Amino acid sequence: MLLPIKAICAPQKIRRDGTSTIFLQYCFSATNRTLLNTGINIPPEYWHNKSQSITKKLPGVYGNFELLNRELVRLIRIAEDLVDLATKKQVSDRGSFVKRYFSPSFSFEKIEEDEEDVIQQKAFEQKLKTDIYFQLDDYVKAKERKVSKATLCVYKNVKAHLLAFEKYRREKITFQSLDFAFYEDFLSYLTFEHIHMRRQTTLIGLKLNTIGKTIKHLRVFIKDRVKYP
To answer: What ranges do the domains of the chain cover?
Structure first.
């Protein structure tokens, strides 16, 4: 398989020790390319650009030229395998994909593990986006410097009342739950069923003013997060 990958050793990029790093240059489009670090460093004068290999004149202090050339061939094959995999997976940015996973210790198992982690992370993030309590906490955090402490207290009460109602009816509350029937049931619960403490006295039902604030701010919150359901 012919791929736009070639080994380069730029003489203009000399390190302090007098060596230059051999890179694999992958041109994944006419205008985009990426450099893959092989970890092999030699004085640039011992690099044969046409054959893309290290010359036999390389001083032994920099390594055995034959072994280094074999390693270079192995790394090129790794890069080719990554390009082939990215192509099969129809990865849009193949350059970034190859650069992310290229290393002398590359293994396909590592890619599979990483991709599974990414899938799980995305699923978790998506779950958070649709979790009403996570979004409510996020909403309150965004309002901390914009509203009074009294209003923040109301927001926290809204969450507490939702959690209590969820426990009461034994059914998870989601954004999809919030229809007209839900508001009617929630209002009835807050009025006649909600149990709370007031000065060591157990009370059932909230005051109309408290219920009104709870419903009002719940509606405002839902309107703000309407994109999440």
So the answer is: 5-115, 132-224
